[in-house]
Structures are given as structure tokens and as C-alpha cells.
Amino acid sequence: MSDGSVQQRQSQPAVPLLEEQRVGEILAAVPERSHWRYRPRRVGMVWRSRTFRIAAVFTVLALCGLAILALVRDQTGTDGFLVGLGLAVLPVPLLMAAFRWLDRVEPAPWRNLLFSFAWGAFAAALVAIIANSFATRWIATATADPSDADTLGATVIAPVIEESAKAAAVLLIFLFRRREFNGIVDGVVIAGFTASGFAFTENILYLGTAFGEDQQIGTSGVVSVTAATFFVRAVMSPFAHPLFTVLTGIGFGLAAVSARHRRIRRIALPLLGLVLAMGMHALWNGSASFGPYGFYAVYGVFMVPVFGLVTWLAIWSRQRELRTLSAELPAYAAAGWLTPAEPLALSSMRARGMARDAARHRHTLAARENWASPYGPGSAPPYGPGFASPYGPGSAPPYGPGFASPYGPGSAPPYGPGFASPGQHASPRRGPSAQVKAHAKAQAKAHGRAAARAVAEYESFATSLASLRRQARRGAVGPDFAERELELLHHLWQRRDVAAPALTYAAQATGRLRPHHPPAAPYAYPHPPQHTQYGGYGYNRS
């Protein structure tokens, strides 16, 4: 170092250091907040806002939707756009119902499914139509052969772009909704909804273009280009796009059940699924160039068998989820969190549906008997000596501890100020008025629906609990396993008093649990022990 630099450094005034003894003095001299010259920056706080994230996603999808619909209308014309839109909507309910039926064991939240559909219909379609058009024009300019450019674009460029754009939705759900992405079924359903949305927008374009051709050549009816296009895309192959993208979803599903330390596998499986989806898409698009019967050969020899194989795999995966319930939940039944019959009922789709129906029926009847009581305002039927009660000798409908009422814990239907009781508007001779009866009937149905909803939520939480335990055995969960487990047990405990008797009845009614005595209609089994805290049962995590 030169002497000049040393002299320059020595000539600079020394910066005083804060001494520890003066900390209190300096902090006491800090000005008020209104006089601060330097304010703390709220770095990243906006992105942490859930409202902001929802608004940002909705805005992006809405802008993509407006852009893609404007582009499609520009290519098809207004009449063609409206005709294409009307015809393209028809297969959408079928596709949604099929994938939703497959996801009945542990249904994915509708927000994830609607996001996936909107991403496919708007964002992925917009990326595909812009990128495909640009790539086709570039190839045509580079090769000076528009026909080869169209063929190359359809068989090579389009599959890569479209499948990558659709796979982005599955990746986003996998990364940001990881707790709700637990296996192959979730990957199949998310990918299926995404591809259904993409096929919806693409069908608008193809059907609208076909309608424009019919107007030019003057054809109509079953011999029109529009009818032929609708038959091929909506009748023969409505599952074409979903079938391609489902391969990507299966890859993500296999990655979801893989151990966390197997990072290469968790990355390679989704990429392998994406490559298979691109290859299958390319084969489908290139089938027209294989000769006059190339399309039918690919459809019958390749597409139909692969569709059957993927369908079998999805149904087998769903049955595997049910077997997971019967394998993992008995540990919680042994610890006292569940009754012995619940794992048997939860592992059967028929028993699940029967439990929901039984809870709806029982609680509707209970509420109706209480609302239609002629024994005075706010009074229940006199289930005492000499009266037959379906809930046991001398017992009233179960609006007490152990039963969930939509009017609050342990509360009966509100025969109080502001509520009309049958006894307040009826004379002893005429009975309740028609208006009161209709109101009582509606309230009873609402009470029954609330009970059925509680059972459905209980089934969903129990399935998530079994899936979480299975992932823990495979090392596929993080350090928050205990926290997530306790949260699920808390949700189960809140709904246990409504769901446990219904599931016990369903297990016996379906023959999965042999009762010592036949159940009363709709069910009448001993209620589980009542405890106000979790400590009432021994808890074992083994």
C-alpha cells in the first residue's frame, strides 16, 4: 500500500463506535415515529398476503382469458365463435364428472380444480396459440415450404409447447398446494381438469373454423364439416387431451409418494411423464400423415388400449387409497381416537355414502320432531314413561352433548325470541299453520344436510390422516408431521359425535362389521365416550 493512501486514511475523521454503556442513553433519544427519516422496508409483505395472491392469479387468468377468446373470435368470426362455444361446452360436464368421480375418496378442493381448468383454458391455450403460430411461420420462412411447416409444427412443435404449458398447472399445484397433492389420483385429476380446459378452448377454435368453412361451401346438417369435426373431437376422442396430460400427472403423483431424500427420482418421474405425454400427443397429431387409415389405426391400436390402461391405473390407485385407510386407521382406533368400526366403514365407498344418508335422515327426523312439537314453545316431545322414543327409553332427540346442532353446541332448534314455535301460532284445535309447517320442514332438512356434511368432512379428514401416516412411513413428509397429525385429529374430534354412530351403522349395514343385535332404523348404537379434551384417550403415535 502506498504512503499516500495511508496518509489519506489517517486524515479522515474516525467514526465513533457505539459503546455498550451508552445504549440506553441513545435509545432514549430516538425521535418519535412521525419524525423518522429512515423507515423499515416491508420487503415481501405484499406477496405474503393471501388476498393479494388470489387477486393476482385471478387477474392473470382473466387477462389470458380475454386475450385467447379475442384471438379465437378473430380467427373464426363472431358467428363461428358462438357456434364453437356452444358445441365445445357439451363434453365439459362429462369430463369434469368423470374426474370428480375418480376423486371421491379424498376429493381435491374445488379451488384447485377450477384453477387447473382455467389455466388450461386460458393461460395454456394462449401460450400454445401464440407459440405455435410463431414457430410455424418461422419454419415456413426458413424452409420456404408452408406444407412441411404445418406438418412439422403439428407433430413436433405443438406437442412440446402444449404439453409443457399444461404441465405448468400441475407443477404449480404440486409446489404450492403440496398438502393437497398426495398421490397418483391427485395427479390424474389435476392434469385431467387442466387438459379439459385446454381442449375446451381448442374445440371452440376448430369447431368455429369448421362452421366458417360450411358457410363458404354451403353445407349443413350431418354432412357438414362442423358435424364431422364435432364427432371426431367431442364424441370419438373427448379424452384425447386429458389422456396426454394425465401421463404428466401420473409422474407428479409418483413423485409425491416418493421419499424426500430421493430427489433424483422426484425430478425424473415428472419429466418422464411429460416426455411420454409429448410423444403420445405427437403420435396422435401425426396419425393423419400415415395414410387414409392412419388415424383409425392409431386410434384403435394405440389410443384405446392406453386409455384403458390409464383408467385401470387410476381406479387401482383409488382402491389403494381405500386399502390405506383400513391399514393405517386401526392404530388410531386402538389409541381411542376412532371407534373400531370406523376404519372398516371408511375403507368402503358404499359404506361412506350410506353413513352420510343415514346421518341426514336421522337428524332430519330428530329436528322435525322437535320443531313440530305441540307441547308448547321450545319444548320437545315428552319422551318419558309411556312414550316411545327412537333414541332410547325416556330420551329426547339428541340435541345435547355428543350431537352437533347447527344452532350451536348442545342447543336445540331456537324456540325463543325471534323464532316462531309451532305452539305460538297454533290453536289446540287447528294445530300448526301451513306456514309454520313449511318453515319447520325446511329447518329440519337444513339440520339433516348439516349432519351429512359433517360426516363427509369427517371422511375427508380421516382419509387425509391415513395418507399422511402412509407418507410418514415412506419418509415423504417434512418435520411438521406431528403438527399436521394433531390438526387432523382435532378436526375429526369436532365431528366425531355425529359421524361415529353413522359410520358404525354403515359398517354393520354393509356387512363389514357383524353386529350382535340388528340396528334400529336408521341406526341406534352406543355413543362414543364423551370427553372435552383430547387427553381423555391415550394417544399413541406408533
Describe the structure.
The structure is a single chain. This protein is mostly helical and 542 residues long. It is built from 16 helices and no strands. It has helices spanning 3-11, 23-28, 50-88, 91-102, 110-143, 146-176, 184-217, 225-236, 240-256, 263-285, 294-328, 330-335, 342-346, 349-371, 434-474, 481-509. It is globular. The protein starts with a helix and ends in a 33-residue tail after the last helix.
Give the structural class: mainly alpha
Task: Please tally the helical runs, counting DSSP H or I stretches of 4 or more residues.
Answer: 16
For the largest beta-sheet, the strand count, sense and barrel status come to: none
Shape: globular
Strand content: under 5%
Poorly predicted regions: 374-429, 517-522, 524-542
In short:
The chain is mainly alpha-helical.
Descriptors for this entry?
mainly alpha; 16 helices; 66% helix; disordered C terminus
Secondary structure topology:
Blueprint (H helix, E strand, L loop, with lengths): L2 H9 L11 H6 L21 H39 L2 H12 L7 H34 L2 H31 L7 H34 L7 H12 L3 H17 L6 H23 L8 H35 L1 H6 L6 H5 L2 H23 L62 H41 L6 H29 L33
